[in-house]
Each structure stands twice: as structure tokens, then as C-alpha cells.
Amino acid sequence: MWASAEQSRINWVRNNQAQIRAALYSGLQDMVSQSDAEARTAPDLHSVGQRIILPSSFQGGPRHWYEQCQDALAICREECTIDFFITATCNPAWKEITDELFPGQTTSDRPDLVARIFHLKQKAIFADIIENGVLGAVSAYIYSNEWQKRGLPHFHSLFMMKAPFKLRETAQIDSCIRWTMF
């Protein structure tokens, strides 16, 4: 169902290029100017196809990621300093995962289960930090979820704290460094 919905979104983008101002991007002109600038040779027009521009509202497209990066940089610029960098990776031996596997199954057989358990644990971590204030009052945060090559999800997060909870001395920073497994 997800793939079908994604295909519908892509088809809409393909069929509505004029509405998303794709005329501003001319692939042929770009190809000609690039090859003129680089080698002063005639461009290979066999490699030019129909260019489809994905709008920034299309999640996962390059324009979407560029916009997300710009938003993250703006938040960091506004907050000035990043106080905590926290990363966590899914552990395939978590009891919540292993209890739900059928005999003979491995975690690579159930990526849906792994992703769901990881998402619940991530929400719990963020609730402890943001809502419960275990590190102090958070003024802003940014995070990114990724999948490792071995198939396990993990996240990277940046937390900016409010003024009284900012880390200013080496001893404060050292007191926060932990290696934990949950």
C-alpha cells in the first residue's frame, strides 16, 4: 500500500510539472552550459532525458533534504550553541523484539517489528529529555533517523538547552558523558 501511494505521488509530480514551475529548470540548457564550461566540447545529447523536478514538499527528494538542512542550520544559528549530541542504535537483542519473534525467525526477518520498537524507544528517550527535563529545559532540538547498512535503525540528535542549563565548564560536560545500553 505504501508503494502504491508513493507511486501516485510521483505520478502527480510527473504530470503536473507546469504547476510546480518546472519550466524554470531547463535540463537541456543546463547540460549545454555545463559541458561548455567544463570541456569546451559539444555536449552528449544522448544522455539528456526528460527531467522531472521534485518539489520540496516531496519527502525524500533532494529539495526536501536541502530545505530540512537549511531549517536545521537556522535553528542552530538562532540558538548559538549545541549542548548535547545524542545518538542511539537499535539493539536486535532487546527483549521487546526477541519476545515477538517466532521460532527460527531473526530480526532481519521482521524489519516492521524492529522499526516499531525502535520508534517507541526513541519517543521514550525524547519524552524524558524534552518533556521530563532529565537534562534540563530544552530550548530546541533537531534529529535525524537513519538505517545502518546492517539493517538497524538509529538516530542522531542535537539538543540546545535554555540558559541556566547550558554546559559552560569542562566538569559539567564530563558529568554528562555516558555510555548506556537499555
UniProtKB/TrEMBL annotation:
Which Pfam families does this one have?
A: Helitron_like_N
Q: In what residue span(s) does the Helitron helicase-like domain sit?
A: 1-158
Q: Which domain of life is it from?
A: Eukaryota
Which InterPro entries does the protein's record reference? Helitron_helicase-like
Protein name from the UniProt record: Helitron helicase-like domain-containing protein
Source organism of this protein record:
Pycnoporus cinnabarinus
